[in-house]
Write a structure and sequence with these properties.
The chain is α+β, with helices and mostly antiparallel strands. It has ten helices and 13 strands. It folds into three domains: 135 residues, Beta-Lactamase; 85 residues, Signal transduction histidine kinase, dimerisation/phosphotransfer (DHp) domain (Helix Hairpins, Orthogonal Bundle); 144 residues, Histidine kinase-like ATPase, C-terminal domain (Heat Shock Protein 90, 2-Layer Sandwich), CATH 3.30.565.10. It is rod-shaped, with a radius of gyration of 49 Å.
């Protein structure tokens, strides 16, 4: 069983355009034949009608028609004319008797008669009892059209042979951007270089857009790879610290637990604390991993109820006063757990980085196009240059105090991912006189 040979873009374009060119030539030739045939027919018809009209204008029973009929025909043509009087007498031009005898036994195609040697146009008309028949020889017209058609056919063949290399050259030029893209993509795959992009051609527009889209995909992939590599590195570092501490205290208990039982209780407390920290970290990592892959059906959620529940929970753990400005009810198409993650992480983040005697203000409003959720604190604030960095995984604004504040550094990364999932936006602004305001915008029409 033969396999279909894979064709290149150049060969496909060449085949397509050559086929199109040949098809156009065939249509032109057919049109030429139809037009020339119509011309021959109409021209012969006009000539025959002119001869008949001339004979009609001079009808007279006294004339000797056998001598006069030749005067109505061109001497150099093999034409023939007959005139039948009302009395039934038929007069023939020179050689007309033989001509009509031959053509009367031939097949007629409308007024056209094709004999073995000649082609005639036959026309007949009756006027005042006289019957006039005219047979015009149109061999010369057919020969002229035939020669013209042969010449055109030859020119068509020459045009086809000349056009093939030209079309192939143009096809190669048009397909060159695709071939360049293919070569560069293969080079990227072989070299496995980072930050590699393909050349964007100026034209055609479709290939240009394709190259831009592919480069955007490469940029997204490179960014994702960097983010995942950084994530693995940071996660390993964050997990390494508590694991090392746990193992250290386990070894301490093994070495000195029997002889010094007083070290067991603080070591167990430390192991418990670090294991809880690891549990929190792993749960947040799983939350981040599930955000993009969560395809559950989205139902309407009462945002006010969710905020009230989270505020009640946090208020029992942190000393700050939390003030809310909420409508009676506000529903939005979002998974309840997703919005709960946003609210909980933002409010808890505000509580962690704010003085114990400070206030936290929460606002929820709705305008024509979006839902606005704000969390404002009076804490240590965030430098303007770090407004985007705080949403990165494991990033903390103040590393020197990060060990004193509980958390994994994933809370705001989860918030950012959840908001992006619903095509929303989050921004940071400075509170006055101090502190930070997080503003979440969720579009009403997604």
């Amino acid at each position: 069983m033969k396999k279909n040979k894979v064709k290149t873009t150049t060969s496909q374009l060449t085949h397509l355009f050559v086929s199109l060119f040949v098809a156009i030539l065939i249509l032109v030739n057919i049109a030429f034949l139809l037009i020339s045939s119509a011309y021959i027919y109409n021209h012969a018809k006009d000539q025959s009608e002119e001869v008949i009209d001339t004979v009609k204008d001079n009808l007279d029973p006294k004339y000797d028609w056998s001598a006069m009929l030749d005067a109505y025909l061109a001497k150099q043509d093999d034409d023939a004319i007959t005139l039948t009087t009302p009395q039934g007498v038929t007069y023939y031009s020179e050689d007309a008797h033989e001509t009509f005898k031959k053509i009367d036994h031939q097949k007629h195609y409308k007024n056209m008669i094709f004999s073995k040697k000649h082609i005639y146009f036959l026309n007949q008309e009756t006027h005042h009892g006289f019957t006039i028949r005219v047979a015009l020889n149109i061999d010369e017209l057919f020969e002229l059209i035939t020669w013209l058609w042969i010449i055109i056919l030859g020119l068509n063949l020459i045009a086809i042979f000349i056009s093939i290399p030209l079309i192939r050259r143009l096809s190669h030029k048009w397909s060159q951007p695709i071939q360049t893209m293919d070569t560069e993509i293969q080079d990227i795959q072989k070299a496995q270089q980072k930050e590699s992009y393909i050349t964007v051609p100026n034209q055609p527009l479709e290939i240009k857009n394709l190259a831009i889209s592919f480069n955007n995909l490469l940029a997204f992939q490179n960014k994702a790879l960097k983010r995942e590599q950084q994530f693995v590195s940071d996660a390993s570092h964050e997990l390494k610290t508590p694991i090392a501490a746990i193992r250290g205290h386990v070894n301490l208990i093994k070495r000195r637990g029997k002889s010094n039982p007083e070290v067991i209780e603080p070591s167990l407390k430390y192991i418990d604390s670090e294991s809880k920290r690891m549990e929190t970290l792993i749960n947040e990592l799983l939350t981040l991993g599930r955000i993009d892959r969560n395809n559950e059906a989205i139902s309407s959620t009462d945002l006010v109820k969710t905020i009230a529940e989270v505020v009640t929970e946090i208020q029992t753990v942190y000393p700050q006063e939390i003030y809310t400005s909420l409508p009676n009810k506000l529903e939005y198409p979002i998974q309840a757990t997703d919005f709960r993650n946003i609210v909980h992480n933002l409010i808890e983040n505000a509580a962690k980085y704010s003085p114990a005697d400070s206030d936290i203000h929460i606002d929820l409003t709705k305008n024509n196009n979006q839902i606005i959720f704000k969390v404002a604190d009076n804490g240590i604030g965030i430098s303007r240059e770090n407004h985007d960095k705080v949403f990165e995984r494991f990033y903390r604004e103040d590393n020197s105090h990060s060990s004193k504040i509980a958390g994994s550094g994933l809370g705001l990364a989860i918030v950012k991912a959840e908001i992006t999932k619903y095509n929303g936006k989050i921004s940071i602004s400075n509170n006055k006189p101090q502190g930070t305001i997080f503003t979440v915008s969720l579009p009403l029409e997604k």
